[in-house]
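Onboarding guide, step 5: your first structure request.
Type a short instruction followed by the sequence, for example:

Predict the 3D structure of this protein.
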Amino acid sequence: MADEPRSLSTLSALAPGLDHPEGVAWGPDAKVYAGGEAGQVYRVNLSDGSSETYANTGGFVLGMAHDAAGSVYACDQGRQDVVRVTPAGDVSTYSAGNADQPMRVPNYPVFDAAGNLYVSDSGDWGARNGFIWRIHPGGIAEIWDRQANGFTNGMCLGPDGRSLYVVESTPPLISRVPILADGSAGSREVVVELPRTVPDGVAFDSEGTLYISLYNPNIIYRFRGGALSALYDDWEQLMLVAPTNIAFGGADMKTLLIANLCGWNLTTAPMDVPGLPVQYPTLS
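The system replies with structure tokens like these:
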């Protein structure tokens, strides 16, 4: 029997007043980071929910990741690039693609242990023309994979660190693309199909359960042992308001951080199992 959804009373609002946050990440400084639709980059205290806008990209901030120095690497839909934001708030372009292909819809970034940044480029809705960039340390970009092309969206490293789990929002499914020993992309495989939904974000816990956030219909799924069940189902949008990116955080990594693109705050959920450790590579 599938697990019953948890009560929404276990969810908490965090950092009220954010501007429709799509991206959320846990930083190496033990702070929560989020972005806004007018280019805001927020730094949030998990303990009390206080926040500051310490940078502005001038665009529309989507997914984000960190290096070991605490710089944020954020996908910016408005600028059509990946920006680097230092802890002091200085903003610069890390990559805008290459001479053959500029970035179009940079959506979500994932670092591996070596400092390669994988970035989903969503393409056009329903057109199956999305792809994944691989940006080498320093900013040189190449197109890494065109198989996971169904509005390529949120991503995360698999538990072994040698594969990318990819949200393809249309058709709605999660796929897996191996990272081969030579760094190239292996053959894509479908992990789970999600009919009549719009999936957006993914994250693993340390026991190998995959969590999937649905922009529509406001559900957080968990996928384990080949079975899909709802962790939270908020059809009334009381606490989950078009949930997009998700990440684990907190001192014990037992807090699920949820961005609400159509809302004004983040949402947190206490978890029994910690998330996978976050990759914070050292970049020169």
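Each response can be followed by summary notes, for example: The chain is about 0% helix and 45% strand.
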